[in-house]
Specification:
- By secondary structure, the protein is α/β, with parallel strands linked by helices.
- The chain is 40% helix and 16% strand.
- The protein is built from 14 helices and 16 strands.
- Helix 4 packs across helix 10 and helix 11 runs parallel beside helix 14.
């Protein structure tokens, strides 16, 4: 059997095993384009319909149970039913919704974030990481009186800041972008110097999430810090995902601080959330006490459900000790998975840091999305279906994220499932 035949067979078995999910998808086709309202949740032949979730497990419409190793693309770090988060939401509900006014909890959450992340002196909230990045870019453009933003091929900074193809994306916000190669010190330095007169900001994830859990080298980050300082360019770290990787985010772990940081995902306690923060003089562009302040709207920026869930999560659950423990657990898991692949001499590896990782079907070094794209994508798709059959839920693109409820037995289940894939699909590796 060749790989294409094996993948076709996997699709057929998936369809046969999930008739209720198929029916849900067919109904959805009548009212949603492609039966979908969130592109990342679409996969062929159709996505599974989730009926319920609890702790770190999900259950589909056909009654199958999965260990959730997707963790809502890093947002679900608390699992699906953490009692502290639930209690905070219930308490908020008791006092009513949609105040149309400021509330005490937003101040406490802002204080907790400023104390936790070393680059943040002031913070403002949004409803998503996408909004946070747009607002940070706007502050940088106002502060520098420049127009261009340097970004990296393969990057994702939200639904309108999408550079995965390395080409112009028609849904992107209409900024002037300079596209640079990730982790390439010399080429990126040259681009910064060439465009320095027009560059307002350099925007990057210090470890690409959607791009394949690819870390930036410390030398690359330090070069960006040095060049931005020299040319008075605002350095923005998108830590929407990577802020979970150390108590004070990736920036604390590597000791390179940006001028601004954007946040989202888990910091809202599992609710819709985003934030952008940084030095006082940058954030003051949104200070309504000052003349010519930039407006910053958003009906639900300080909504009481998110504020209470986020504060409880950050201060009571994902404490600095909990962050260190979870990421040590992730480091050990990734080491075990890579050792398994190496022992089998399989052209397969798991990149990442701490509690975030992605599988790639190549054993060549991966320093950029271009390197990652050289892996066998059809084999990675087959890996997804084999994991689903083993009761493991992960991203179709191979992303895996640990959450706090995961126990050692469940981590072992993942290692066993990967081991079975390596053994059973040996002919394709």
């Amino acid at each position: 059997m060749d790989l294409n035949t094996a993948l076709t067979k996997a699709h057929d078995e998936y369809t046969q095993q999930n008739p209720k999910s198929l029916a849900r998808h067919q109904t959805a086709l009548d009212v949603m384009p492609g039966g979908n309202t969130r592109s990342v949740l679409f996969n062929l032949p159709f996505p599974l319909g989730v009926a319920k979730a609890e702790s770190c497990k999900i259950y589909d419409l056909d009654g199958h149970e999965y260990i959730d190793f997707l963790g809502e693309y890093t947002a679900g770090i608390y699992g699906h039913s953490h009692p502290v988060i639930r209690a905070a939401i219930d308490k908020a509900l008791d006092n009513g919704l949609n105040f149309g006014g400021t509330n005490e909890t937003e101040v406490k959450l802002a204080q907790a974030i400023c104390e936790r992340f070393p680059s943040i002196d002031r913070i403002r909230f949004t409803n998503s990481g996408t909004e946070a990045n747009l607002m940070a870019i706007t502050a940088a453009r106002r502060h520098t009186n420049r127009s261009h933003i340097l970004v990296f091929a393969g990057a994702y900074h939200g639904g309108v800041l999408y550079f995965s193809t390395g080409k112009k994306n028609p849904v992107n916000a209409p900024y002037d972008f300079v596209l640079a190669p990730y982790n390439d010190v010399d080429a990126t330095r040259a681009l910064i110097q060439e465009h320095s007169a027009n560059l307002a900001a350099v925007l990057l994830e210090p470890m690409m999430g959607s791009g394949g859990c690819i870390q930036a080298s410390t030398s690359f980050l330090q070069m960006l810090r040095d060049e931005c300082t020299q040319h008075q360019i605002v350095l923005i770290f998108d830590e929407v995902m990577t802020s979970r990787l150390a108590p004070g985010g990736f920036q604390e772990a590597v000791g390179v601080l940006p001028d601004m940081t954007t946040l989202g995902k888990y910091i809202g306690g599992g609710m819709s959330f985003g934030a952008f923060g940084g030095r006082v003089e940058l954030m003051d562009h949104y200070n309504p006490h000052l003349p010519d302040a930039l407006p910053h709207a958003g009906t639900f920026n300080n909504n009481v459900l998110t504020m209470n869930a986020g504060l409880a999560g950050l201060t009571q659950v994902y404490t600095p000790d909990a962050a260190r423990k979870l990421n040590e657990q992730g480091e050990d898991l990734r080491r075990r998975l890579n050792q398994l692949c190496q022992r089998a001499e399989a052209p397969m590896q798991f990149t990442g840091r701490g509690s975030m990782m992605t599988v790639h079907m190549t054993d060549a070094p991966i320093h950029s999305p271009t390197d990652a794209a050289k892996g066998n994508q059809a084999l990675r798709e087959l890996f997804f279906f084999d994991m689903v059959n083993s009761g493991i839920w992960l991203a179709p693109r191979g992303m895996i994220n640990l959450s706090l409820p995961h126990n050692e037995s469940q981590l072992n289940d993942l290692v066993d499932a990967v081991g079975a894939f390596v053994e059973q699909r040996e002919c394709f590796l």
